[in-house]
């Protein structure tokens, strides 16, 4: 089912897989979704706000403050209420740990804690990071909260290793969102 009129918040965290966020945004918009992007500070090293803003047709949110001098801020509660779905793709080990533990030092963390909509995460990290007991415990904790964790497919990773840790392809993410009853 198309996502026409659906409001999708896309959280992008610091992973080499962030390069897949641009085609993901494009595909979501193509299905009719309104997309707003939240970029963590680490993600900005991998993909530019200009690219994502151009594709989403919305400003990219990067921090709590819009304009520090004017006291304007991005209201995380409002964003959490606005969204029909929060998708975190890629979800780095650091971001997964923040979400699982309730840490809140980025806008994405605060929106996650405020979101009343379904939340989906697409993990993306190297093999050993993905398989580490701490990461697996964080994924289990997120599932226990009702967060949908998409399994990481096996394949070649940026490090040259092969195994789980890859982010789902953008087409697969869009298909999974479309198959979910939002």
From TrEMBL:
Pfam families: Flavoprotein. One of its GO terms (molecular function) is FMN binding. Residues 7-178 form the Flavoprotein domain. Keywords: Ligase. GO terms for biological process: coenzyme A biosynthetic process. GO terms for cellular component: phosphopantothenoylcysteine decarboxylase complex. This is Phosphopantothenoylcysteine decarboxylase / phosphopantothenate--cysteine ligase. It comes from Hymenobacter actinosclerus.
């Amino acid at each position: 089912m198309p996502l026409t009129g659906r409001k999708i918040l896309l959280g992008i965290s610091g992973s080499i897989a962030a390069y897949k966020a641009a085609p993901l945004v494009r595909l979501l918009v193509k299905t009719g979704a309104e997309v707003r992007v939240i970029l963590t500070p680490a993600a900005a090293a991998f993909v530019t706000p200009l690219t994502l803003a151009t594709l989403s047709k919305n400003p990219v949110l990067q921090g709590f403050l819009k304009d520090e001098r004017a006291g304007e801020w991005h209201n995380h509660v409002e964003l959490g209420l606005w969204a029909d779905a929060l998708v975190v793709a890629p979800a780095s080990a650091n971001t997964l740990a923040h979400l699982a533990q309730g840490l809140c030092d980025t806008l994405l963390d605060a929106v996650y804690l405020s979101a009343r909509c379904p939340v989906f995460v697409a993990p993306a990290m190297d093999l050993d990071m993905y398989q580490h007991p701490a990461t697996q415990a964080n994924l289990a904790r997120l599932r226990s909260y009702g967060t949908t964790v998409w399994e990481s497919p096996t394949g070649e990773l940026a490090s040259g290793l092969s195994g789980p840790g890859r982010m789902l392809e953008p087409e697969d993410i869009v298909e999974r969102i479309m198959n979910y009853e939002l």
